[in-house]
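On clarity, I found the account of how folds are encoded harder to follow than it need be. For illustration, here is how one protein appears when written out as sequence plus C-alpha cells:

:::
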Amino acid sequence: MTKASVEHASFTIERVFKASPARVFQAFADPAAHDRWFVNADNWPVAEYSHDFRVGGRESGRFSQDSKTIYFNETVYLDIVEDRRIVSAYTMAKDDRRISASIATVDLIAEGTGTRFVFTEQAAFLDGLDKVEYRRDGWEQLIGALAAELGEKSEAA
C-alpha cells in the first residue's frame, strides 16, 4: 500500500500556432477533431469516451495501453470563452485509484494572424502514483498532436 501523500505542482506550456484562435478553439469544441488529436493521439485502445464541451459539461474516458492497467479521466468544464479560454477541472485514476486532481487552463491569445497557446495546469499528485514530469510530458505530446491536427508543427515560445 502506498503511503497517503499529496505533491502540489504547476506547469505552463506555450506554443505559437499559425492557425487563428478560432481554428485552435474548434479543435477542442468539434467532437471529431477533439477525438483525433486528444482521444486517439497515442493510439491506446479506448474502452469508453464522452465529450460534452460546454460550461458544466463533462468529458470522461477509460483507456489502456496494455489491456491490463486501466486509466480513467473525468473532466468538468468550468469556464469557456469562445476563441479565447477554456478552464477545466479533471481527475485521473489508475485501476480505480485516484492519482491526481487538476485545474487546467487553455489561453488562446491572438498573435498576428496566429495564436499564442498557453496551457497551465495546477495539480495535486496523490500518493506518489503520478508526477508532474509525467503529466507535462503527456501534455507536450498532446499539444504536438494538436499541432498536427492544425496542419503544422508547434514551436516552443
User: Anything to note?
Assistant: The chain has a mean pLDDT of 91. Residues 78 and 118 are 17 Å apart (CA to CA).
